[in-house]
Every structure is written in C-alpha cells, then in structure tokens.
Amino acid sequence: MPRRKTKKVTRSKPTRLRARSTAMRAIKAGFGVLFAGVAKLVQAVTPSGETVSGFFSAAWHSRGVRRCAGLVGGVVVVSLLSWVMLHNLRNDERYRVDPGRIELSASPTWAKGNLARQLKGEIEEDLRADLADLPETNAFDNDLMDTITERMERCPWVRSVLRIERRFPTDPDGYSRFLPVLEIRTPAVVVDTADRYVLVDGDGVVLPLSVPKDGDEYALFTSQLAHPLRMVRGVVGSAPAAGDEWINEQIVAALSMERVIRQAELDRSMPIEEIELVGVPQQADARGRVHYQPDGGVVLIPDQSRMPGARVMWGRPPAHASTLELSPNDKLTELKNRLRAMDSVADARIDLRSRS
Predict the structure, then answer these.
(1) Given this structure, which CATH class describes domain 187-351?
(2) Beta pairing, strands 96-97 & 177-184
C-alpha cells in the first residue's frame, strides 16, 4: 500500500524576550497610575496660599503662641550672649590657670601640730610634681579637670578626689586656681616590722610614712596623733611599696580585729594597746581557706600601765571566724561580763576561744 503522507504542525510559542517586554510595560503602567494618584493626593492636601496666610495670621494673634515665640527667642539670645561671654573669658589672662598651683582644702585630720603641717606640705609638693608637666589653660576646661583628678588619685596619700573647686579672681590683680577637696588616707594600725614601724590604712594600703624603731622617735610620733593608733605585732614579711595594698592574711586579720574594737568601743572598758598575731598564716590555700596553727589566733594586750600583765585570748579574728568559736558579738558580750565580775584585771588571762 502507498504510504500516507503526514503533515507536521508547528505551534508558535512566545519568545522569552517578548514575555519580558510585556512585563516591563505592565510595571511601567502600574507605576504611572501610582504616581498620578500620589500627585492628586498631594495636590488635595496641600493648603493654598490663602490658607497658609490665614493660619499664620491666627497664630500671631494668639497670646499663647506669642508667649512661646518670645520664650524661644529669649533662650536663643541668652545662649548667644553666654557663648560670647564664655569665649571672651577663655581669652582673659585672669582666667588662665596653672595646674601646678595646687592648694589643699584641709590638713590630714588624724594628725596635729607639726606632723599635720609637715604632711600637708609633703602631699601638696607631691601633687604639684605630678601636675607640673600639664600646660596652662583656662579655668573652664573640663577635660583638664578629669586629667587632674586621675593624676591626684595616683598619690599614695589620696584615697579619692571628692571634687575640684574652681576659684575665680575677685579683684583685678587676682588669678584663677583649682582647689581640690581630697579624702586623705588615715592610718588604722601601726605594724611592727623588722626594721621600722609601718602605717597601714583600713583598706590595707601602706602609707608613705614610717617611723624608725626608736623609742624617742616613736614617742614623738604618737604625741602628734589626734587619736592613738594600735600596734600590730606578729606580721611576717616585708611591707610593699607605699600606695600598694599589703596582700597578707595577717594584715587582714589585724584590720578586722581593729574594726571590731573600734565599733564596739571596747577601749572604754579595756583600752587595747596592741594586737598580737599568733599562729596566723600569711596566705590562704588554693581554695581560699586560712589554716591557723593549733591554738593560733589573736591576743589583745591592754594598756599595761593600767592593767599590767593582762591578756585576752580572742582566738580567730572576725575575718577568719570559725563555727567552733563564739561569734564576735558573743565574744564581746562574754568579755564585758567577765570584766564586770572581776575585782582586778591585772595579770588576768581571759580566754574567749572556747564555747564552754
């Protein structure tokens, strides 16, 4: 049979370029409609010139609006005048200040007489030396105040800078100066070391004043104290440099004992002359535990001129208190009860270490 001829049918498909062109025309048409709508909306909400003129006319005739406008104008004028005055004062020689001209507002309160004057002069001299390289500037420079505060707090005698007051000239020949108000470190105890007596404050910081181990020198020093200082004996090792904290568990023990004596006002009933450390370790172990030697602790020695031979075996100080002993408050109560029951304290041995 003869073959039947078949005819190929080719269907036309839109090309990718033609489809992209159609999409772009649709997007442009959409944006055109959107912009036209926005333009009509802006035209509808935009007030006309007459509307704007009427609004400002009504606002100007309003008393509240005029007051606000006057207030804003006054603030602007005052701010401008202040800026001009400050600019002129900064360039005035009378308001130039030398950071090296430092004067303390007060002497160390724990000393008196020649010692207080000597310490005040030495502290001022050290501070001036620390600030000598700072350039002269005007008294309104706040950045300089921060620099001065930072440098002053490096001084071993300065615990903190409370504030720095600006003093401006009151007469044509006067000059501007800074008057710092400082918190001067106060010694809490005197530590007996191998070659000298070292002063330590309540934070455990070594002060830049030591006394030779000479009876006359130490007697002169104690006579110029506003309040007596307690002697601490039994501290092992040399003291660090002035201004550094003495990191030693023996110092921690002594300072915690000193705080309890002061706060409880124990000196009224039994004046304590010395704090003696017996069997107290210098450092804690790796887990922070402080291991005392057997029967180790603090011994309080009263004023021997009034209570000769008397001793108080306190035991572990508050910083290293043990549950095997009475609490510090219970020890104070027990001590006061025993003192009231005793006819004479001379040669007495009062042991507060045992709960029994």
Answers:
(1) alpha beta
(2) unpaired
